[in-house]
Amino acid sequence: MRKFLVSTVLLAALAPASAASPEVPETIAAPGEVLVMTLHAQGAQIYECKADTSGKLGWRFREPVAALLDQSGRSVGRHYAGPNWELNDGSAIVGRIAGRAAGATANDITLLKLDVTSRRGTGGLATVTTIQRLNTRGGAAEGPCGTEGAFLSVPYAADYAFHERPR
Question: Nearest Cα to 124, choosing from 92, 95, 96?
Fold first, then answer.
């Protein structure tokens, strides 16, 4: 029994998180859409130290920089400012935030729903209409920033679920 339990726990820890999780908050749900693929992102959220309208310095989000990995851990593309997702097959999409939900902890960036606003190529992302950022870990800026123009790179991981409207 103990050997079975240990094996089950190890398998659960190693298994990729499911993008079709029933715990997806309503604010980022994609009702009626079909899941095309889910990719894991591993990278950093980049912040810049900037003053707000009152002159107080704080970390402001600048851009993501991440590798997109398939279930075997092989790099299949990248995620970067725009926000853009680009696959090695030449297909690419740009998204615009359509919904947000809190991450699991204060250290985790928000979960997102994004609508695709433009696309190029005929590969895996060609028919995608909606992107969900799920299962975020890390990425939230912490601490003071004392020098305007300074940058902060915060490691993060997330799963991106790519959906299309049924045909």
Answer: 92
Rounded to the nearest 5 degrees, what angle is found at the Cα of 108, between the Cα atoms of 106 and 110? 100
> Quick one: what percent of the chain has pLDDT higher than 90?
84
What is the residue type of 127?
A: T
Q: In this predicted model, what pLDDT tens digit does every residue of 119-130 receive, in sequence order?
A: 999 999 999 999
Nearest to 14 by CA among 53, 40, 50: 40
DSSP 43-94: EEEEEEEEE-TTS-EEEEEEEEEEEEE-TTS-EEEEEETTTEEEETTS-EEE
Q: Name residue, tokens 């049924």.
A: 166
pLDDT category of residue 17 using cuts at 50, 70 and 90:
very low
Q: Give yes or no for a contact between 167 and 133, defined as CB atoms under 8 angstroms apart.
A: no
* Residues 47 and 149 sit within 8 Å (Cβ to Cβ): no
Spatial distance between the Cα atoms of 10 and 74, rounded to a whole number of angstroms: 21
Angle at 76 between CA 123 and CA 11, to 5 degrees: 125
